[in-house]
Amino acid sequence: MKKFIYTVVLGLLVSGGVFAQRILTLEECIDIALKNNISIKTARNNAISAKAGFTQSKFNFLPSLNANASHNWSEGLQFDQTVGDLVNTTTLFGGGSLSAGVTLFDGFSNRLIMGQRKLEYQAALQTIESNIQATEASVINGFLSIISTKEQLKISNRTLELLNEQLQRQERIERAGTGSMEEVYNFRSLIAQQKLTIVNQSNTLATSELALIQLLLLDASEDYDFAGITVNDAELEVEIEEFNSVYDKSIAYSPGLKSANIALEASEKSLKRAKYSWMPSLDASASWGTNWSSNFVNVLETDAEGRPTRTEVTDWSTQFERNESKSASLNLRVPLFTRFANRTGIQQSKMQLLNAQLNVEQTKNTLTNQVQQAYLGLVNAKTAYAAAKESLVNLNTSFEFSKTRYESGTIDFVTYLQSLNNQIGGEFQLVQAKYGIMLRKLILDIFTGESRPAGSN
Q1: Residues 280 and 362 sit within 8 Å (Cβ to Cβ)
Q2: Domain 21-62+106-138+227-280+334-448: which topology?
Q3: Is residue 324 helix, strand or coil?
Q4: Domain residue extents for the chain
Q5: How, if at all, do strands 64-80 and 85-105 pair?
Q6: Which domain of life is it from (predicted)?
Q7: pLDDT per residue over 262-301, tens digit each?
Q8: Model pTM?
């Protein structure tokens, strides 16, 4: 029996561990997103590819070296290059060679390509940072949306508890014969409406949580919860930095803008290389080779007329030595007519340069709009927070008076309900302003490259 009880308890403990809820902080959510985000992974792969291209552009200055070897069989009339004569027989022949080449001048093409590939690699690195920045902003936005909705749910649940207490009190008064059923039904109606509000907020919370879980690329079938963020009034009321300072920092830090500017430089290199395609090129090459043939023979005996009667194929080493050849050359190439390929290349490079300039302008405009919106949102949220904080103090006091007066019968239900709704609205406004400040402050910190979000628990 003891063994059975032990087994059951152990099973419950194990199952509890398997299905335990995982609580994630804001920092953990950001770390998970940066680890799993596919756009960041793709950007890193592109950076690796760009680095390989940059490395190869350096190797393009090196000479080339090739080796070749062959072994062939043929039958019938043919010209045997090894013996320098026509033969009509079965022939085995082969050979080998080494060749090398180096570009002496290519219109600065290799140098410009190397500069372009270097810039493309630098742009790819900045693209990684830009994707990281965008991912952090998305996670912060989703996380604070969840926390804000949770705070609103707490307010709604407290309101529901208050209404239940008021309903119980009113039911006691009605049973004592000093109250009316109308008041009871009024509170029951309010409770039903409040429950509906809680259901809607719970649905909103579930939707926000699912969206964040999907953003983090986590398994939605597992149970996750998200920890709140500790923040005090001093942090919320700290003075805002001047907009021009925030904007200048954002422009200077923005990896997206850096990537666009670097891509613009790369396009300028590409256009310059296209213009230099009209220039001549000069290459140097050298080769060494040798061959052998079954027709290359040594005469051992001849007849009276001097015709060979007995021969043997000359050994490979002797043939390789006798048939050795060497060459060296300089090759000058001048593009006189390229079927308009060079002109087309220049036109395309110009369009790419114009698009790169437009991309820089668009990226800067987008960043400017985002910073302006976040900054204005922060200013508005701080103003709203100060007003909502002061207002809530008065609304709480007013509601306590209204509650006392309603319970004593000096005001009607409508007046009491209005006071209650004002208090609930004041609490909601304070929560919205509070998390509005936090959201926009964190977003601006990301834009300016400030430290990662802290204070999550």
Answers
A1: no
A2: Outer membrane efflux proteins (OEP) (1.20.1600)
A3: coil
A4: 21-62+106-138+227-280+334-448
A5: antiparallel
A6: Bacteria
A7: 999 999 999 999 999 999 999 999 999 888 776 666 655 5
A8: 0.83
